[in-house]
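Risk register update: the risk of archive-format incompatibility is retired. Evidence:
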Amino acid sequence: MEEKVGLGIPEFKLEDFLPMSPGMGPPLPAILGLLWPWYTPPGAEFKISDLVISPEEVTPGQVVTISCTVTNTGTEAGDYTLKLGGDFMAEQMVTLEPGESTTVSFTVTPDRVKTYSVTVDGLSGSFRATEVPAADIRVENLVISPSEVYAGETVTISVVATNYGGVAGTKRIVCNVV
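Archived output:
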Protein backbone atom coordinates (compact mmCIF):
# COMPACT_ATOMS: atom_id res chain seq x y z
CA MET A 1 0.00 0.00 0.00
CA GLU A 2 1.37 3.40 -1.01
CA GLU A 3 0.10 6.89 -0.45
CA LYS A 4 -0.88 9.09 -3.37
CA VAL A 5 1.49 12.00 -3.39
CA GLY A 6 0.17 14.99 -1.48
CA LEU A 7 -3.39 13.64 -1.02
CA GLY A 8 -3.01 11.38 2.02
CA ILE A 9 -5.10 8.71 0.27
CA PRO A 10 -3.71 5.15 0.30
CA GLU A 11 -3.15 3.62 -3.11
CA PHE A 12 -3.63 -0.15 -3.37
CA LYS A 13 -2.10 -2.57 -5.85
CA LEU A 14 -3.62 -5.83 -7.00
CA GLU A 15 -0.74 -7.70 -5.29
CA ASP A 16 -1.93 -6.32 -1.94
CA PHE A 17 -5.13 -8.41 -2.21
CA LEU A 18 -3.65 -11.66 -3.56
CA PRO A 19 -2.89 -14.51 -1.16
CA MET A 20 0.75 -14.75 -0.01
CA SER A 21 2.81 -17.83 -0.72
CA PRO A 22 2.32 -20.57 1.92
CA GLY A 23 5.91 -20.21 3.11
CA MET A 24 5.37 -16.59 4.13
CA GLY A 25 2.14 -16.85 6.05
CA PRO A 26 -1.51 -17.84 6.04
CA PRO A 27 -3.19 -17.77 2.63
CA LEU A 28 -4.51 -14.29 3.31
CA PRO A 29 -4.02 -11.04 1.39
CA ALA A 30 -0.63 -9.38 1.86
CA ILE A 31 -2.41 -6.16 2.88
CA LEU A 32 -3.21 -7.76 6.26
CA GLY A 33 0.52 -8.20 6.96
CA LEU A 34 0.08 -11.54 8.74
CA LEU A 35 3.21 -13.67 8.48
CA TRP A 36 4.20 -16.98 10.04
CA PRO A 37 6.32 -16.32 13.14
CA TRP A 38 9.29 -18.23 11.67
CA TYR A 39 9.30 -16.30 8.39
CA THR A 40 11.90 -13.57 8.03
CA PRO A 41 11.36 -11.39 4.98
CA PRO A 42 14.46 -10.98 2.84
CA GLY A 43 16.38 -7.84 3.67
CA ALA A 44 19.56 -6.20 2.55
CA GLU A 45 22.31 -8.58 1.47
CA PHE A 46 25.74 -7.42 0.39
CA LYS A 47 28.39 -8.71 -2.01
CA ILE A 48 31.98 -7.41 -1.98
CA SER A 49 34.02 -7.67 -5.21
CA ASP A 50 36.78 -6.19 -7.35
CA LEU A 51 39.58 -5.49 -4.86
CA VAL A 52 42.04 -3.00 -6.39
CA ILE A 53 45.33 -1.89 -4.78
CA SER A 54 47.00 1.07 -6.45
CA PRO A 55 49.89 1.46 -6.86
CA GLU A 56 51.23 -2.01 -6.11
CA GLU A 57 54.78 -0.76 -5.44
CA VAL A 58 55.59 2.41 -3.50
CA THR A 59 58.25 3.95 -1.33
CA PRO A 60 57.65 4.42 2.42
CA GLY A 61 55.49 7.49 3.00
CA GLN A 62 53.71 7.23 -0.37
CA VAL A 63 49.89 6.84 -0.27
CA VAL A 64 48.26 3.59 -1.44
CA THR A 65 44.54 3.35 -2.30
CA ILE A 66 42.67 0.12 -1.58
CA SER A 67 39.21 -0.02 -3.13
CA CYS A 68 36.42 -2.53 -3.75
CA THR A 69 32.86 -2.62 -5.03
CA VAL A 70 29.94 -3.16 -2.62
CA THR A 71 26.59 -4.26 -4.06
CA ASN A 72 23.27 -4.65 -2.23
CA THR A 73 21.86 -7.87 -3.71
CA GLY A 74 18.93 -7.92 -1.27
CA THR A 75 15.39 -6.63 -1.54
CA GLU A 76 15.62 -3.81 0.99
CA ALA A 77 17.89 -0.85 1.63
CA GLY A 78 20.51 -1.36 4.30
CA ASP A 79 23.78 -0.36 5.92
CA TYR A 80 26.99 -2.33 5.63
CA THR A 81 30.30 -1.82 7.39
CA LEU A 82 33.40 -2.76 5.40
CA LYS A 83 36.44 -3.74 7.43
CA LEU A 84 39.98 -3.25 6.19
CA GLY A 85 42.35 -5.73 7.83
CA GLY A 86 45.81 -7.18 7.49
CA ASP A 87 48.64 -4.72 8.16
CA PHE A 88 46.17 -1.79 8.36
CA MET A 89 42.85 -1.49 10.22
CA ALA A 90 39.94 0.74 9.23
CA GLU A 91 36.16 0.64 8.79
CA GLN A 92 33.69 2.42 6.51
CA MET A 93 29.91 2.20 6.52
CA VAL A 94 27.82 2.47 3.35
CA THR A 95 24.06 2.67 2.87
CA LEU A 96 22.71 1.14 -0.33
CA GLU A 97 19.30 0.70 -1.92
CA PRO A 98 18.38 -2.72 -3.40
CA GLY A 99 20.49 -3.37 -6.50
CA GLU A 100 22.72 -0.36 -5.86
CA SER A 101 26.53 -0.58 -6.03
CA THR A 102 29.26 1.76 -4.92
CA THR A 103 33.04 1.83 -4.79
CA VAL A 104 34.56 2.19 -1.34
CA SER A 105 38.18 3.30 -0.94
CA PHE A 106 40.63 3.23 1.92
CA THR A 107 43.94 5.12 1.82
CA VAL A 108 46.97 3.86 3.73
CA THR A 109 50.55 5.01 4.02
CA PRO A 110 53.29 2.44 4.63
CA ASP A 111 56.03 3.59 7.00
CA ARG A 112 58.80 1.10 6.26
CA VAL A 113 60.17 -1.21 3.59
CA LYS A 114 58.24 -4.51 3.45
CA THR A 115 55.41 -6.35 1.70
CA TYR A 116 52.08 -5.32 3.22
CA SER A 117 49.00 -7.57 3.21
CA VAL A 118 45.46 -6.20 3.19
CA THR A 119 42.02 -7.78 3.42
CA VAL A 120 38.56 -6.34 2.85
CA ASP A 121 35.74 -8.64 3.97
CA GLY A 122 37.22 -11.85 2.60
CA LEU A 123 39.10 -10.37 -0.37
CA SER A 124 42.87 -10.18 0.03
CA GLY A 125 45.86 -8.65 -1.71
CA SER A 126 49.24 -7.08 -1.08
CA PHE A 127 51.58 -4.28 -2.10
CA ARG A 128 55.28 -3.59 -1.60
CA ALA A 129 57.09 -0.66 -0.09
CA THR A 130 60.66 -0.60 -1.42
CA GLU A 131 63.80 1.42 -0.81
CA VAL A 132 63.83 4.94 -2.10
CA PRO A 133 65.60 4.80 -5.47
CA ALA A 134 68.71 6.97 -5.67
CA ALA A 135 70.81 8.50 -8.37
CA ASP A 136 74.17 6.73 -8.77
CA ILE A 137 76.34 9.30 -10.54
CA ARG A 138 79.89 8.19 -11.27
CA VAL A 139 82.71 10.37 -12.58
CA GLU A 140 84.95 8.57 -15.10
CA ASN A 141 87.37 9.11 -17.97
CA LEU A 142 89.45 12.02 -16.67
CA VAL A 143 91.20 13.75 -19.60
CA ILE A 144 93.75 16.56 -19.21
CA SER A 145 94.81 18.20 -22.45
CA PRO A 146 97.56 19.04 -23.04
CA SER A 147 99.23 16.99 -20.34
CA GLU A 148 102.19 19.42 -20.06
CA VAL A 149 102.03 23.20 -20.35
CA TYR A 150 104.03 26.33 -19.52
CA ALA A 151 102.72 28.76 -16.96
CA GLY A 152 99.85 30.84 -18.34
CA GLU A 153 98.86 28.37 -21.05
CA THR A 154 95.30 26.97 -21.22
CA VAL A 155 94.55 23.46 -20.01
CA THR A 156 91.30 21.61 -20.64
CA ILE A 157 90.17 19.14 -17.98
CA SER A 158 87.14 16.97 -18.77
CA VAL A 159 85.32 14.03 -17.24
CA VAL A 160 82.30 11.93 -18.15
CA ALA A 161 79.54 11.82 -15.52
CA THR A 162 77.10 8.91 -15.91
CA ASN A 163 74.00 8.19 -13.82
CA TYR A 164 73.76 4.43 -13.27
CA GLY A 165 70.83 4.84 -10.86
CA GLY A 166 67.12 4.57 -11.50
CA VAL A 167 66.16 8.22 -10.93
CA ALA A 168 67.42 11.65 -11.92
CA GLY A 169 69.91 13.36 -9.62
CA THR A 170 72.74 15.83 -9.35
CA LYS A 171 76.34 15.60 -8.25
CA ARG A 172 78.79 18.41 -7.68
CA ILE A 173 82.14 17.84 -9.37
CA VAL A 174 85.04 19.86 -7.97
CA CYS A 175 88.40 20.19 -9.69
CA ASN A 176 91.35 21.28 -7.58
CA VAL A 177 94.50 22.35 -9.48
CA VAL A 178 97.62 22.43 -7.36
